[in-house]
Amino acid sequence: MEISSWYRNHFEFRISGRYITMQHIYPLLDMYKLNYEISVPGLSETGQDIPLIKIGKGSEIILGWSQMHGNESTTTKALFDFLRFVSQKHYFQTEIEQFLNKYTFYVFPILNPDGAQLYTRENANKVDLNRDAQSLSQKESKCLRNTFDALKPSLCLNLHDQRSIYGFNDGKPATVSFLSPAADERRTITDSRKIAMRQIAKMDNVLQQYIPGQVGRYDDSFNEACVGDTFQKAGVPTILFEAGHFNQDYQREKTREFIFYALLSLFDIIGEKEQPMSHEKYFDIPENLKNYNDFILRNVKLQDEKKLVSVAIQYEEVLKNDQIIFSPIVDEIGKLESKFGHHEKDAEGSEILTNPQEKLTVGSNILEINNKYDKSVIYFQKLNSFIT
């Protein structure tokens, strides 16, 4: 069976969308605790559990964590897809058995349960846990660090989401990105960085089959306050995963599939196994650019403007009634020749009306954009609920 066929029919359908909290995953944890060791090595700042799942019995210890930023849930969904895959008894049994015998994979599905509930990047105290690696001022940070010190992993997986603003010079979006964090200010290619780079190159090799030209690499400027940089400095290979945007997939249901394939590749369940990747292949992955917006309207005639301009709109994610609403905000007005839109329209030199009817300004919320002289021509319209 092709892995894509397995995924299509068997992914973990019980969690979906962008808003994933402890309440969503507790039923899954209750089910899996019959077959896996699930501990609670720490509590959040408001007293919520921070569960840790142990998968496998091998000598190679891997430590992963998702939703360090509470509003970045795609990799959490992918982790439960992975757990469902290694728990089934019908397909890829040889590969799964090899994985379970070689590795012990410890993973925090939600490291920041308070931030997940509030749908914020920070925790309940408004602290970014990925800038707390040195201060260890928060209970969640201490929980991760204590687990790291106790397990002494040979590899760490720092699992995140990235915004839909990243892409490449050729106009393709960055759907999945990786980073082998720096270990010092000079960005020295240490042995631990090389290991992470080789693993990233291996995952990229598999992902090119599914999203060719849509895998990116983050800038590796050193910041010791970041967890990945701290662990890499300690000599432990660390990989940053960033789940991004794919073709109007604002719920990140396709991107979770690509992260799932990346995890399978990392653990040698799919992909080439014989020939190890050179760490230099890592640098063949293009570096992310901030050159995308969710929507761009081209060739607009604005009042008091002689030249035609483009209007870029970016969605702001807002939690409302346990759903994520995508609120459109004017991000930039200008030529925008080096920018791409996930969706674009051409006003063909027409003047426009906006709703609410006010002068178009950066930072304003937009409900609708119409042709000024033909209101039946709608260039942009805010959806009433959430984007599918």
Short characterization:
With 388 residues, the chain is α/β, with parallel strands linked by helices. The protein has nine helices and 17 strands.
Would you spell out the secondary-structure blueprint of this structure?
Blueprint: H1 3-10, H2 22-32, E1 37-43, E2 49-56, E3 60-66, H3 74-87, H4 93-102, E4 103-108, H5 113-118, H6 139-151, E5 155-161, E6 166-167, E7 176-179, H7 191-207, E8 215-217, H8 227-233, E9 238-243, H9 253-266, E10 289-290, E11 292-300, E12 309-320, E13 323-334, E14 340-346, E15 352-355, E16 368-371, E17 374-381
Parallel strand pairs: 3-4, 3-5, 5-9, 7-8, 11-14
Antiparallel strand pairs: 1-2, 2-4, 6-10, 7-9, 11-12, 12-13, 15-16, 16-17
Helix pairs in contact: 3-9, 7-9
CATH architecture of the largest domain: 3-Layer(aba) Sandwich
Number of strands: 17
The CATH class label of the largest domain is Alpha Beta
What shape does the CA trace take? globular
Task: Report the span from N to C terminus.
Answer: 29 Å
One letter per element, helices H and strands E, the order comes to HHEEEHHEHHEEEHEHEHEEEEEEEE
Strand content: 25-35%
CATH topology of the largest domain: Aminopeptidase
Low-confidence regions: none
Q: How large is the radius of gyration? A: 22 Å
Helical/strand content category: alpha/beta
**What is the CATH superfamily of the largest domain?**
Zn peptidases
Mean pLDDT: 95
The strand line-up of the biggest sheet is 1-2-4-3-5-9-7-8
Q: Main beta sheet, described?
A: 8 strands, mixed
Q: Helix proportion of residues, in percent?
A: 25-40%
**Helical stretch count?**
9
Summed up, the domain count is: 2
GO molecular function, one term: zinc ion binding
Organism: Aequorivita antarctica
Pfam families: Peptidase_M14
Domain Peptidase M14: 7-266
